[in-house]
Amino acid sequence: MPAFLTPLQYSILEAVCARLVPADAAPDGAQMGAVDYIDTLLGAFTFTPPRIWAGGPFSGRFGGAASFSDFEELSPAEELAWRTRVEGSRGIPERERLGPVTGLQETYTRGLAELGREFLALDPPARDARLREVGDFTSLVYEHVCEGLYGAPEYGGNRDLAGWHYLNYEGDVQPRGFTDAEVSEA
Amino acid sequence: MSRDFDAIIIGSGPGGSTAAEILTEAGLSVLIFERGRNHLIDLDNPAVLPQRFSNDELKYMTRHFLGPDPWAEPRTFRTSTADGDRQVIGEVNNLPATVGGGGVHADGKLPRFRQDDFLVASELGAIEGANIADWPVTYDEMEPYYTQAEQLIGVAGLAGANPFAAWRSTGYPMPPGPPMYGALVTSAAASRLGYHPYPAPTGVNSVAYDGRPACNNCGFCAYFGCPIHAKGDPVAPLRRALLTGRAQLRPQSHVSRILIENGRATGVEWIDARGERHTELADRIVVACGAMETPRLLLLSGLTSEQIGRNVMFHMQTFVFGIMPFRVHGHIGRSVTHVHDDHIVIDEAARAAAAEAGLPWIKGGLVEHCSPSHMIAEAKQYPWGPQHKIMMRDSPMRDRLLGFCMQGDDLPQFTNAVDLDPAVTDIWGLPVARTTYQLHTHELVASRHHGARLAQIMKEAGAERIMTATSPKTTGDLATSHSEISQVPISRHVAGTARFGTDPSSSVCDPWGRLWEAPNVMIADSSLFPTGSGYGPTLTLVALCLRNSRAFAA
């Protein structure tokens, strides 16, 4: 059950992410968890604490007790900043100190509506052409796809560590770390 | 209202925490204000080191975990007064707003300055358009404090390895840590061309030190807090101060004003995390907010010297990157293990380049041998589509990339300044710091001259392709490159906005770092620096703070 996206929005975004990072020997961007990452960001405040900052120090992947899933509490100022960023200023005076802010939620709702259900009916080259037409939205989604594929999976993406595994990247290695030989040798 | 503390310290970074250690050691009670959150130390039991930081690129590199949030506490920037009130609102050279300050995110390169860095005006001479002044202290006077700072922080290094270094009375407290593979490649190339690379003096434990473990090479170093306390961040001095029982640390407490009456500070006004305002009184105030927030606070406090905020310096960073035909695994190890100083020393070639540009001299800066390690940042540089994974696997911009970053000396200019933005406020309603800054011709000429030499070294190292970039970006006839890096300098090395000197008409502080306008206020950060040098400021500001705090406690 997505935290923010409707089933239709979710399907369109899946199709978008699969074009931004298409499948090859490794899965496509949606299969690697990019949509769930974006949905978790857009719905960050449906969770308590909000899914903004994962906990620490260790994920448990290389030893230590796993604590990344214990997200950090936000201070009142931090919550105001992040709600403004995610939800937009919506005419609320304290969120409009620096002027109106369009939230990520609205940007995604509008961007996905502009692509619409018809995006799903297009063939891959036509989908790419459409994504080039809505370039600003595509750039934003691509940034989030990169975060979703290569960030820690606790943020909702990088499903089964697929983003790290296809690159043989270890990810967070504390508390194990690396040996001195691994640092210095080719 | 009662005075509950002998001294108030504003800021818990390397300067403020050093002042806390020295003042409590002298028997004074201190209250340390920090506007950011505390993840560094257990305030109830400082003997135990809590582990809170993590290997998490999203949290630290994308989502501002260490603060300040660029919307809640923005800064503004313009290149000159001709550009209107501001060109940029948001992230301008943000050092962390967190307990430990910039010491938390730094990768801990801690070089000393050289002798002539303290005497630029008298040894190298004036340059037109630059506001160069000697420091009111010499290297010889600073040397014992440098030694002490290296021991208190815990610096790993190799004495004698850098032929250009100033004299030192003793070796480093720790030997260097393991050299990174990529840095071995570039430093070997530099040596073949006659340069003198050496193990970077680094505040990262190579062996267990001061009750903290040796670094385990996790690779999340620059921009990250250390999960295991292997970095020489301010946890060490803060812990010593708190363990005296005479210090209290108050996080998420934003000092909005120093109260000043008849040339003396009486206390501070501060705002708690819920926005409520309070007052705290003390007879001594230490300001250690960093070279952008310190002048802001002085101006918010009604101080009037027209010198406040002037002469702001960054390092002008010149980057030379080489794409190598082999993997360099820059994500394994400390961020930087090798540096060289050759570009700081003014040789015949540098003199000739200066003369050709009509300058008496040019000076470059410390060159860091580096290789990028951040995977999300890498991914965002590649195009979307089928190329994405091809590029990620091939990794020309990360796993096959080696780099040099020269921390170019930036001359002070009176018109480069931090002041209060006339309209933009932070979340508490206070005017934010505005920076007005442009490069001097000196920096452009030095960048072009030394950047070309760094490209030769990169070629010698075997690079398939070489790219250059500068921060801030450069345009026009003297451009080193036209990079995508913004006009706002990305260097976190900032200094000069409350310079100390012997003449109140040309400085903000006296030779002991005390405000001429209110001598019971001491500045304890790189705001004091009259000139910047080509080295990172942290070790020098800590050494200076050791010297000045002893006098301030007396």
User: How much is the average pLDDT of chain B?
Assistant: 96
Envelope shape of chain B: globular
Instruction: Give the termini separation of chain B.
Output: 25 Å
Largest protein interface? A-B, 58 and 57 residues
Backbone CA Rg of chain B = 22 Å
Average pLDDT of chain A, rounded to a whole number, is 98
Succession of helices and strands of chain A: HHHHHHHH
Structural domain tally of chain A: 1
Shape field of chain A: globular
User: Segments of chain B where pLDDT lies below 50 for 5+ residues?
Assistant: none
The tally of strands of chain B reads 18
Structural class of chain A: mainly alpha
Question: Helicity range of the residues of chain A?
Answer: 40-55%
Distance between the termini of chain A: 46 Å
Task: Give the SSE map.
The complex is a heterodimer of chains A (about 190) and B (about 550).
Chain A: H1 7-20, H2 34-42, H3 76-87, H4 104-115, H5 124-133, H6 135-150, H7 162-165, H8 180-184
Chain B: E1 7-10, H1 14-25, E2 30-33, H2 57-62, E3 75-78, E4 88-90, H3 102-105, H4 120-124, H5 139-153, H6 181-192, E5 198-199, H7 235-243, E6 247-250, E7 254-261, E8 264-271, E9 277-281, E10 284-287, H8 290-300, E11 316-323, E12 336-340, H9 348-356, E13 365-370, H10 375-381, H11 387-394, E14 401-408, E15 417-425, E16 431-436, H12 441-460, E17 465-471, E18 521-523, H13 538-553
Parallel strand pairs in B: 1-2, 1-10, 2-6, 3-16, 10-18
Antiparallel strand pairs in B: 3-4, 5-12, 7-8, 8-9, 11-14, 11-17, 12-13, 13-14, 15-16
Helix pairs in contact in B: 1-7, 1-13, 5-13
